[in-house]
Amino acid sequence: MENRKYPKRKNIRLKHYDYSQSGLYFITICTQNKLNLFGEVKNYKMILNNYGKIVETYWNEIPKYYPDVELLEYVIMPNHIHGILWFTKYIGNNPVGAIHELPLHINRRKMALPKIIGRFKMQSAKQINILRNTSGYSVWQRNYYEHVIRNEQSYLKIAEYIINNPLKWKDDEYYA
After folding, report:
1. Domain 23-171 sits in which CATH superfamily?
2. What does the pLDDT look like over 43-85, one tens digit per residue?
3. Helices (H), 31-111
4. Which H or E element spans position 29?
5. 100 burial via Cβ count (<10 Å: 0-12, 13-18, 19+)
6. Alpha carbon separation from 43 to 47, 74, 76, 166 (Å, rounded)
7. What region, left, alpha or beta, does residue 64 occupy, with left being phi > 0 and alpha being psi -120 to 50 degrees?
8. pLDDT tens across 140-162, in order?
9. Closest CA relative to residue 114, chosen from 99, 134, 133
């Protein structure tokens, strides 16, 4: 077998930040290869197809499994999802199971956010692959974008961006 060198993945997380503490988190998750998989934008509105509806179902189930997480603004676009998660209190004392996206040496008690996103991606991809009969296919890119929202002004700007995303789809950096 050929010995391949893979580029080192850029760490997107703030060093020493506890991603289990209460606060607001802006998330963007893209499909593998930015494939338009979840529907289309028509007349400046996002029309979800069956795959998009699966994504919406699993996004809306996050508080069912994590009761101290509330969903704020979100939008599912043809090839990505933007959303704001509100951790209403510290959730780092919950047991953390396997997180396929994290190296083992990271303090997992401080990683509730990656656990939540990992579960969302895994469950939604599993159901999409069942529907498409494409077992094991990567629906989502391996990583995701996250931003800790630190003040009300930032929250309002990000919330407006999410709400208006379908209006500006043709100008969006993820437009394909």
Report:
1. Transposase IS200-like (3.30.70.1290)
2. 999 999 999 999 999 999 999 999 999 999 999 999 999 999 9
3. 50-60, 62-65
4. strand 23-30
5. exposed
6. 10, 19, 16, 9
7. alpha
8. 999 999 999 999 999 999 999 99
9. 99
